[in-house]
Amino acid sequence: MEREINYIIIHCSATRLDTDFTAKDVDTAHRYRGFSSAGYHYYIRKSGAIEKMRPLEQPGAHCYGYNRNSVAVCYEGGLDENGAPADTRTEAQKVTMRYVVGHLLDQFPGSQVVGHRDLSPDKNGNGRIEPIEWLKLCPCFEVRRERWEPVSGEE
What does the pLDDT look like over 29-48, one tens digit per residue? Predict the structure, then answer.
């Protein structure tokens, strides 16, 4: 693969936990926004099923300024039954996400695993992206607090 990958960016679909939102729905929503196809590379359903979307060789359309050097992993959900941001990941999604991210870390060693919101601009210049600076809440959980490891066990 010709692209240099520095980031594995985690997203949520920003859909309610009591709503099904398929990969086809993601693709339709992204095309409606003017993208050529779904902007993510992987989509993880509530069941834990992995749906491949864009080929890894193709830059995503998911995080302005970072698309060329990143891989996008999105999970179905991110909003509770009232529509408020929440970590709605099922246990199956958590297991699958660790599996997908682990394989990506094997393939792209040294990549940082971050949430979409973690790449918001540092508006006050203090060197930290704080909640008040987030452009969006996606992925609705603290990605940097998770334990992400390559599947091979090596870094």
Answer: 999 999 999 999 999 999 99
Q: Is 140 left (phi over 0), alpha (psi -120 to 50) or beta?
A: left
- pLDDT of residue 153 exceeding 70, the answer is no
Between CA 8 and CA 115 the distance in angstroms is: 8
User: Cβ of 58: how many Cβ atoms within 10 Å?
Assistant: 13
DSSP assignment of 18-68 equals: TS---HHHHHHHHHHTT-SS-S-SEEE-TT--EEE-S-TTS--SSSTTTGG
Query: Among candidates 95, 106, 14, 111, which has minimal Cα distance to 48?
Result: 95
Let me know if domain 7-145 sits in CATH 3.40.80.10. yes
What's this model's pTM, rounded to 2 decimal places?
0.93
